[in-house]
Amino acid sequence: MPVFDRWDFLATQIVIIGAGALTALVTVVRPLLAWIGGHALEWDLTTEDVGRAPEGLLARDGVTVRGVEGVHVEVADASTATWLASLLPGVLVSVTALVVALLAVRVLRGIQAGRPFTPSNVTALRSISMTALVGVVLHVLATSLADHQVRAAALVDRDDVTLFWGEVPFTLLGALLVVGALAHAFDRGLRLEQDVEGLV
Amino acid sequence: MPVEEPHRVVCHLDRLLAERGLTVTALAEQIGVTNVNLSVLKNQRARAMRFSTLTAICDALDCQPGDLFSVAAAGSPPR
Predict the structure, then answer these.
(1) pLDDT over threshold 80, residue A64
(2) In which region does residue A161 sit, left (phi positive, over 0), alpha (psi from -120 to 50) or beta (all else)?
């Protein structure tokens, strides 16, 4: 007997998969189309320069620098390496989001089928946790690399590399811990279910 | 998959039922245990038993746990 309402379950699956697809659209497809279309590379610098007056930054030729809360740059003739570096964080976020979405749907389908405590679900939950954790670390590295690349292309004498751990939201790390704990709980449930199998 | 722990406990429910002219279904209805669970017990596929079930079966069949179970001799194939 199904656990969730049929339409709720369907809508949840669409939302999860849709969120993954939308992430890919925004973070990869859109900038890729801008590149193919010959538009300028737009980037928000996440450096210690954020918060400083953009007038104090010396831009290279063909580069527009705007500052509201951060520093927004538009590089008109960005090199292939700069474009690829700028796409890398988006690719990582998209792959992570899609993998997590597919695994989450797999877990939900197991629950819906009345079989929540299966080795497959435990593995899927652990994979969600690990994928997201690895994704966060790689995203920080990729963002730092991309920022370095864009900064070097956009600004004069600004090509130092900084790791941006401050960009990682605490809520995401909290969610990862919850999913990890959930995997442990499902593993325990699996063992208990095996214990009562054959009990009369 | 559950890890099967071998044992040599043999259940004599089928013999006790036959001696009393009862069926698994009739006993199941009498003691409030599912037919499936009693069949598991009768077919030597049970791995554990609640004392409440044991008490109910012994009451219904007017027997003792020792009549229902025995342990096969060492060296006999484990179940």
Answers:
(1) no
(2) beta
